[in-house]
TrEMBL record:
<keyword id="KW-0337">GPI-anchor biosynthesis</keyword>
<dbReference type="Pfam" id="PF01663">
    <property type="entry name" value="Phosphodiest"/>
</dbReference>
<dbReference type="GO" id="GO:0006506">
    <property type="term" value="P:GPI anchor biosynthetic process"/>
</dbReference>
<keyword id="KW-0256">Endoplasmic reticulum</keyword>
<feature type="transmembrane region" description="Helical">
    <location>
        <begin position="506"/>
        <end position="523"/>
    </location>
</feature>
<feature type="transmembrane region" description="Helical">
    <location>
        <begin position="787"/>
        <end position="807"/>
    </location>
</feature>
<feature type="transmembrane region" description="Helical">
    <location>
        <begin position="544"/>
        <end position="564"/>
    </location>
</feature>
<dbReference type="InterPro" id="IPR037671">
    <property type="entry name" value="PIGN_N"/>
</dbReference>
<dbReference type="GO" id="GO:0005789">
    <property type="term" value="C:endoplasmic reticulum membrane"/>
</dbReference>
<feature type="transmembrane region" description="Helical">
    <location>
        <begin position="483"/>
        <end position="500"/>
    </location>
</feature>
<comment type="pathway">
    <text>Glycolipid biosynthesis; glycosylphosphatidylinositol-anchor biosynthesis.</text>
</comment>
<dbReference type="InterPro" id="IPR017850">
    <property type="entry name" value="Alkaline_phosphatase_core_sf"/>
</dbReference>
<feature type="transmembrane region" description="Helical">
    <location>
        <begin position="593"/>
        <end position="611"/>
    </location>
</feature>
<keyword id="KW-0472">Membrane</keyword>
<dbReference type="Pfam" id="PF04987">
    <property type="entry name" value="PigN"/>
</dbReference>
<feature type="compositionally biased region" description="Basic and acidic residues">
    <location>
        <begin position="1140"/>
        <end position="1151"/>
    </location>
</feature>
<dbReference type="GO" id="GO:0051377">
    <property type="term" value="F:mannose-ethanolamine phosphotransferase activity"/>
</dbReference>
Amino acid sequence: MLLYVTLGLLVHFVFFASIFDIYFTSPLVHGMTPQFTPLPPPAKRLMLFVADGLRADKLYELDEDGNSRAPFVRNIIMNEGSWGISHTRVPTESRPGHVAMIAGFYEDVSAVAKGWKENPVEFDSLLNETRYTWSWGSPDILAMFAKGDLRSHIFTESYDASSEDFGAHDVTKLDTWVFDHVKEFFHAARNNQSLFSKVNEDKIVFFLHLLGIDTNGHAHRPSSREYSDNIKLVDKELKEIESTVKDFYGNDGKTAFIFTADHGMTDWGSHGAGHPLETCTPFIAWGAGIRLPQKVSAQKFDDSYLQEWKLENWKRQDINQADVAPLMAALIGVPFPLNSVGIIPVDMLNTSDLFKAESMFTNAVQILEQFKVKMTQKKEATLSFLFTPFKSLSDTEQANILRKARYYIKQKKYDEAVSLCRQLIHLALRGLAYYHTYDRFFLAFNVVLGFVGWTSYASLLIIKSHCNLMRGVSTEAKNPSRLLPCAFVAVGVSVTFFLLIQACPWTYYVYCLLPLPIWYAVLREIPVIQGFVTLLSTFPPRRFLGYLLLFILGVEVLVLSFFYRYMLTAGLVALAAWPFITALWTRAKSISLSWIFFCLLLAVFPLMPVVGRKPDIFLVVGAGLLVLLLSLFVVTSVIKRKDSFINEELVLHLLQMLSVVFSMCVVYGTHHSLLKKQGLPLLNQIVSWTILASSFVMPLLSPPVLFDRLFSILVSSMSTYLLLSTGYEALFPLVLSCLMFVWIHMEQETLQHSVVSCKQKVSTIQFACNTDAAQCRDLCLDDIRRAFFLVFFLVTAFFGTGNIASVNSFDPSSVYCFLTVFSPFKMGALIMWKILIPFVLVMCAFEAVQVTTQLSSKSLFLMVINISDIMALHFFFLIKDHGSWLDIGTSQCEFTQQGSPLPLRAGLAVPRQDHSDPPGDRVCTLGLFFCTGYHNILKYFEMRIFILNNRKIKYLLNYTQLSALSLWFSPFKPCRKATGDNLTLIYLERAFHSHLLVLILPPASAFRKGVYILCSLKTLGGIHRYRPVSSPFEVYLPQGRSSEVRLGQPSRRFRVRGQRPNCASVAQESENKQVSYTATVILAQNFRIHYKPPFWKWVGYSKHERINASEDSEAPNETEGQGSYVLGLSPQRPSTNLVKESEDRVRSSAV
């Protein structure tokens, strides 16, 4: 199982990571020669203003009174300069945006994860080429372009990162700080001769990064008064800075000004994807070398922006964001950035036609240099007979175009030269894209081949190990041939040699070699495939096609829901009809009505508006009140129940209710505090983090009874979810959980009327007991439906809360109860947990369904993986790297969400060796973690402590000390073999609801016999039995004799009886033999015994070293004491009455 899980994780990780090698790789190449315009530049200096997060429409449009928010900028547009829209690309984050403007190239989409880091790769930028650069603004942005040796000519001045507080009273101070320091700089330069001489040099840049608008947009939304006021402030300060600079330089006319933004922002205050509100930013240029405004009667743009902005008569010149870098380089006469792919907008230049032509020629040569380097690299890494060059731009074609362009310039045919150079640039860019994606088909084919092979192997594993379809059909090859492994080895060697001689990156070896072992595993199961095909031939064709079409329809609905959220509504309406097409409607009408009601109620949420909504704190508080109302019903039922541990349960419920009350108060108080611009109160912040931490612990302290534990998980999760909610999404987990409760009941009803017997009612099922006791059964068609339901509910859990398949769909204001100071990784982690909470609720319910249906979680998990993999394969082919940037960003996000490694999506944690199932047959899920608590976690990870050269227990540690000690001894490493008489194995388990420590010490001789007496003691359920780790047999505890383990000395005999057909030989042997082992059970630390297990007799109970008790001796009903005790139990054959007696005591009894 471990090998299978490892291979599965590897395949999914490779599949997930492959898109960044296939679709989104870095375009950078190195080794080019710098190129610059060989004519005097029009400007000596340039001032670059970047208003972070400024949308074009908010700057250009008129307010409700018909006045401009930026009168100075509007005056520039109408009287002094050129204007337009700068079109950005995804990811619309600060780092990629600034790199595109200043370095001239677009980073790959994977750079969204590096959006706030310094340069992950080395690249050339405009600032590198300047004589001096001075910059002011955010420390995150300025540090990107001033590293190492560059600090000698790039000077930065920034405020403290803690100033970027979304909850601050006035975040416009971030921009005011920049403008004030710029003014002080020029004032100081008048009195500092060294500085004065530097600022009077040519080829210098002043870079002002203005973060206030972005911060106000995140905190208050772009439609807020604060956002508009910040624009007005920037406009006012721009006018003052321009006046200051002109006065300093004596109006020499050698200063160029550019005002733009790195990205826009959605209506709900986020960015990162490709929505037009994020990709459309303003661009205004004026000053030296910039063309004056041009009045026109008609323009080529077919959007309605010009009419809305009342600027239809002033020529609009749109550019790509990367075009800003060559424009700035041409204006001040520095070399174009080496990696720039921008095209200089010559129509914006107010220079001679010769300068325009020379600048465009330089631009073409600079991009052609990149093409040549890229072609050379690919040619050298490919076998000559396999290399296919870009035919549209051969070496001869390059020389002809350059010679012709130079001829046009000499003949003063500047327009023809500019046009020809622009044609060459487009060809070179196409060639760069061609070589950039040269290996795309090759890589995609291998990745898809491996992924399809994995899905096939998982399907075969389900058919072979978890279905009864193959019984009676031989699945073993009669004469295994060595030809198959030899053939795969030969193919592997050939592929490796082929990649080696081409000097391919190491990732290519992974993509090309991974399919080989996967398909080898598939082809080894040829008998299974043949048997399955034979069985299918006997299946009614119409019925088979009907099931197949229904499955395809369900998967396609899930895929379409990523594009159209209302498809989930259609799916939920269809699920509501489930009881009518089965017998559930007649057998369980009340539960069926509940199912229909909650399905239809949940179907409303996908129809609600997406995240572009206004906060509604009253809905959040209302959701908290509903949780408290439900909690009161539960508390009432607990009080009515006669239970020995009623006080502990009541305390836990009251604490959880108190957490919900605190969450409501914090949400309400924080909202009003931020509205008053008083910031986030410290007390609210402390309470929020405390509630978050406690929400992980409280569910684990609740009783492992199915509904008690699930409700505890719901209340604890809701206390955190309320803190992260801003509107109607706070109601979603509550409705989803109600549907999950009904789903568990529905599955129980389905099971009770099927061929699979169900012995217990839902109200009596316990996670701790049934997870171990459930007997694995074969899969049936209903189990495919259950797996599909899980995937459907997981998708609904994401889209139902108002999210869309885009990284900008998350409202940053949802984390304001925890922090308001900009911290992308903390904020991202909190938002991720908000997304995961509905997933946790679904996974917990699915674990309950697995327990009630008595089905191996491994088989269900394999089906869930297969369904998710089929969906991920859809999105792999739907990924786009062309077309609109909205489409590109959305396709990438959709694949990331569905194709990410399954541990996040379906809850896989680690394979678990359960003592009631064959080794590795169960899987720990996210739901299982919360549903079982520490009681079972210790069993899942098989905590062991090895004590050498010690045959006695000298110290009885408390639970905390022993847990810490066990962690120190690496509890996650299982022990399969142990030899020698000096090795004693201690197994730790904490019994629930009693301060009890159980230690089981088998002798070393037990290991030599090949059977481990290392199993879980069931503290709930009334059945005390053991299952060894290495076999599926029940091992009953022998009679204890002493607190001292006497190694190698057998005690009384006890029985081992087989249960599994795959161990028939051992079972047959055990029928005729009795096996002897020694074991001692020690109870310590104020324990209490409440009842005698019905399947056992007390054979000894003493506080002394040795006991003298007869077979009929009885233990007291309740005993409390200190120190070491020895308890011996002797098994007896259970009768029907004893089984019933045990089941009746499950809810009220515990050891």
